[in-house]
């Protein structure tokens, strides 16, 4: 993948220098309220341009596996999640993956007494299954209140709450509070569509966190969670801008708060709060999906052509277990293009893949080459401002580009181009490189940025536009290829509102500036936060650039312990293929998964050794990992009952080499030279 990592290095290096901002609380303008309504309507396609009318109507179909939204005045239900709605349509309780996640109702606090005596009623305005819209009106001691909420089939809710003061009133504090059941809020993932934001276990961080505005916060456990998002901090009135977002732990409650006002101020015009909530997982994650998808990254046109010995490389890939291949950006000439001058080669490659039962995905980026013919006349209108440039050393005249904004005309160009691409070629899906990210933007020519009273333009994160674009792409691709794969590379930014219509994500590139010499480690709580998709609702894969910082087998030891595969390249396929074969031989897709964090039934005294298990038919397949780069010998104690092992003497064998392994009683001896894994099958032997 030549210089691919430069994209994010260059792009995000620039991002890291930016100030971070945002939600939308608007203290003066009702105009913004109207603009927000337009945004919501546009999300539903109600205000869509006439040229998109047909597509927008089709977009109302609910995409599998999502189901039609159920809406009553007090209830919102989407796949696997149900929300009881209270005052202002704010959630009183949310159930996700079988458990309640709120310790108390979500509320807006306006101190000292702005929202005392709140009373009102709500109704469902419309529901087409794809999305429902609610309205709520009421009054409190200080405000007339109007709340509009949309809830979509993937569980995403967007709120617009207008607080109109009955007369000028003095507030000391205004904030949104989300009180969480602490046990379901042990992992904190934060994102501003850059690298380096906090993503790790909350208790391990000390239970408290505070930061300036950023557009995405998720708190969850290993199976579920709840995300909050917003597009800007417009209207925030803070003396301490670095305290806009906070998480505190008080016993069994983890309280997430968005503070919009932190000092005494007179409110004499409407306040508009705009934000999103999304309970997760958005959809179920299964090993069966992954086993069917098995992705190899970075093939080229020559894999379909016989080599000097008459071998077609795709044959070896198929035999190694590959089910999907990804062609990176050079499937076409100019970076980010959705047509290719290599028509003959692409058709030949598609045919060769399909003859072997392999799916082909091609690359979509987050920009279009400055020199691409289609970019002519659009650069300034489509680009994120300030620019996020990428200046590669390899073929810069074809590949140099500036990141584009999903809120610009680039979205229509991309969706229409993908529609045409899938009309002409039998592709099997797309690989998105940064396409799902709502890059920070101040480009007022396409509606981004907001201007303060002093005339300064501030940043917005076009979350809704990125989400809408991804939904349109997903609908377009699925119309042509219902069983296609949409795979997103989004390192560091696991933002479900923009990812929920994809199938899988590939994460880990953000560590590539660490070196092998550092002996870099990802704490297990951090891995569980972001690198496994069970609680979020997408299948996860781990990205490993060899020795930056992990050796490939080190990455396997870390990731696969969590059931997370490490995506191979042609040169690393031989390290992954034997694992696939062992998993298939055992039949993990119909086995019970018992990861180490739930007590798998296989435990070592050594803290650096962990084991997860698949259990089936009286036997267990153990993924045993040693997570330190030192040699160790240890004993793994096997709990026969937990592992569901049948009667007879315990017997163990290496599931890859079939070599018998020493077992004494219920103890298995293991030995590692460094950060390594062992795949062990255990059964009872009469
Ligand atoms: Zn923009």
What's this entry about, in short?
By secondary structure, the chain is α+β, with helices and mostly antiparallel strands. The protein has 15 helices and 46 strands. Strands 1, 8, 9, 10, 11, 14, 15, 17, 18, 19 and 23 form an eleven-stranded mixed beta sheet that branches. It has an eight-stranded parallel beta sheet with strand order 24-25-26-30-33-34-35-36. It has a six-stranded antiparallel beta sheet with strand order 37-39-40-46-42-43.
Describe the protein's architecture and organization.
- With 686 residues, the chain is of the alpha+beta class.
- It folds into 3 domains: 277 residues, Beta-galactosidase, Chain A, domain 5, CATH 2.70.98; 192 residues, TIM Barrel (Alpha-Beta Barrel), CATH 3.20.20.70; 93 residues, Immunoglobulin-like.
- The protein contains 15 helices and 46 strands.
- Strands 1, 8, 9, 10, 11, 14, 15, 17, 18, 19 and 23 form an 11-stranded mixed sheet that branches. The protein has an 8-stranded parallel sheet with strand order 24-25-26-30-33-34-35-36. It has a 6-stranded antiparallel sheet with strand order 37-39-40-46-42-43.
- Strand 24, helix 6 and strand 25 form a beta-alpha-beta unit.
- Helix 10 packs parallel to helix 11.
- The protein is globular and about 80 Å long.
- Zinc ion (ZN) binds next to loops.
């Amino acid at each position: 993948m030549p210089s691919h990592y430069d994209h994010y290095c260059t792009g995000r290096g620039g991002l890291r220098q930016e100030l971070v901002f945002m939600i939308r609380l608007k203290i003066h303008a009702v105009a913004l309220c109207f603009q927000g309504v337009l945004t919501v309507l546009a999300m539903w396609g109600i205000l869509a341009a006439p040229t998109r009318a047909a597509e927008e109507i089709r977009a109302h179909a609910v995409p599998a596996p999502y189901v039609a939204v159920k809406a009553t005045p007090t209830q919102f239900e989407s796949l696997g999640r149900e929300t009881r709605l209270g005052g202002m349509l704010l959630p009183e309780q949310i159930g996700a993956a079988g458990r309640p996640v709120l310790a108390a109702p979500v509320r807006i606090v306006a101190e000292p007494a702005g929202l005392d005596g709140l009373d009102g009623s709500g109704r469902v305005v419309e529901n087409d299954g794809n999305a429902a819209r609610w309205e709520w009106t009421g009054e409190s001691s200080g405000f007339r209140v109007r709340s509009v909420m949309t809830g979509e089939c993937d569980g995403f809710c967007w709120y617009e709450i207008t607080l109109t003061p009955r007369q000028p009133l003095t507030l000391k504090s205004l904030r949104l509070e989300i009180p969480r059941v602490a046990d379901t809020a042990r992992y904190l993932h934060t994102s501003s569509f850059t690298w380096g934001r906090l993503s790790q276990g909350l208790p391990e961080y000390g239970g408290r966190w505070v930061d300036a505005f950023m557009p995405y916060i998720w708190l969850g456990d290993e199976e579920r969670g709840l995300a909050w998002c917003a597009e800007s901090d417009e209207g925030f009135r803070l003396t301490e801008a670095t305290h806009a977002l906070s998480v505190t732990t008080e016993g069994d409650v983890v309280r997430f708060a968005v503070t919009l006002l932190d000092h005494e101020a007179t409110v004499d015009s409407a306040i508009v709060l705009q934000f999103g909530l999304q309970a997760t997982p958005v959809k179920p994650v299964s090993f069966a999906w992954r086993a069917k998808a098995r992705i190899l990254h970075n093939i080229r046109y020559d894999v379909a052509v016989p080599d000097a010995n008459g071998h077609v490389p795709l044959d070896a890939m198929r035999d190694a277990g590959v089910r999907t291949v990804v062609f990176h950006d050079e499937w076409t000439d100019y970076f980010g293009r959705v047509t290719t001058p290599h028509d003959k080669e692409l058709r030949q490659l598609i045919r060769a893949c399909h003859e072997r039962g392999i799916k082909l995905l091609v690359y979509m980026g987050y920009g279009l080459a400055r020199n691409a013919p289609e970019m002519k006349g659009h650069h300034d209108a489509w680009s994120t401002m300030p620019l996020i440039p990428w200046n590669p050393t390899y073929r810069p005249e074809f590949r140099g580009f500036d990141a584009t904004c999903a809120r610009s005309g680039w979205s229509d160009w991309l969706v229409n181009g993908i529609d045409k691409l899938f009309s002409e070629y039998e592709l099997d899906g797309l690989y998105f490189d940064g396409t799902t990210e709502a890059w920070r933007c101040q480009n007022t020519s396409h509606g981004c940025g907001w201007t303060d009273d002093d005339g300064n333009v501030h940043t917005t994160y076009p979350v809704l536009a990125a989400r809408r674009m991804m939904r349109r792409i997903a609908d377009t691709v699925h119309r042509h290829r219902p069983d296609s794969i949409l795979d997103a590379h989004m390192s560091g930014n696991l933002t479900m509102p923009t990812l929920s219509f994809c199938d899988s994500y590939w994460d880990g590139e953000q560590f590539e500036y660490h070196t092998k010499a550092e002996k870099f480690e990802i704490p297990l709580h951090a891995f569980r936060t972001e690198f496994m998709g069970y609680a979020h609702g997408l299948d996860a894969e781990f990205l490993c650039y060899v020795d930056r910082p992990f050796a490939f087998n080190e990455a396997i030891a870390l990731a696969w312990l969590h059931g997370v595969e490490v995506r191979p390249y042609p040169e690393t396929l031989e390290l992954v293929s034997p694992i696939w074969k062992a998993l298939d031989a055992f039949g993990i897709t119909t086995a019970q998964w018992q990861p180490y964090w739930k007590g798998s039934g296989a435990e070592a005294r050594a803290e650096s050794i962990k084991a997860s298990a698949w259990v089936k038919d009286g036997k267990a397949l153990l993924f045993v990992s040693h997570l330190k780069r030192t040699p160790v010998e240890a004993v793994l104690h096997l709990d026969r009952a937990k592992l569901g092992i049948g009667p007879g003497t315990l017997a163990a064998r290496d599931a890859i080499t079939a070599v018998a392994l020493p077992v004494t009683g219920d103890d298995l001896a293991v030995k590692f030279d460094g950060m390594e894994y062992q795949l062990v099958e255990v059964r009872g032997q009469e």
